[in-house]
Specification:
4-stranded antiparallel sheet, mainly beta
């Protein structure tokens, strides 16, 4: 089976930084698409960043210029580097990888941006 394990959430003041990691149980070349999503209370799950195996990235307008998605294929890890965090970034963050047509999700991790 394929599973994803996340780490790196926590509490950070506005303007601070956090890094999220998503470790896959298989080589990343299994996945046709990879990305990060988040869900805040009262909101739907929002796609915030995607990356292809070739390294092409895309970002939601809400995080563009502040967040960076990347992968380390040798370690089977996908990262989300979050900078200049705002209270509006507070949410549960999920990593996602599509495994030959099936969505695979990490367990989710809470990011709270507050003084």
């Amino acid at each position: 089976q394929v599973y994803l394990v996340q780490s790196g959430g926590g509490l950070v003041p506005p303007g601070g930084s956090l890094t999220l990691s998503c470790l896959a149980s298989r080589s990343l070349d299994r996945f046709t698409s990879m990305g990060w999503y988040r869900q805040a209370p009262g909101n739907g799950r929002e796609m915030i960043a995607t990356i292809t195996l070739g390294g092409s990235t895309d970002y939601a307008d809400s995080v563009k210029g502040r967040f960076t998605i990347s992968t380390d294929n040798a370690k089977n890890v996908m990262y989300l580097f979050m900078n200049s965090l705002k209270p509006e970034d507070t949410a549960v963050y999920y990593c996602n990888m599509i495994d030959f047509g099936r969505n695979r999700w990490g367990q989710g991790t809470q990011v709270t941006v507050a003084s």
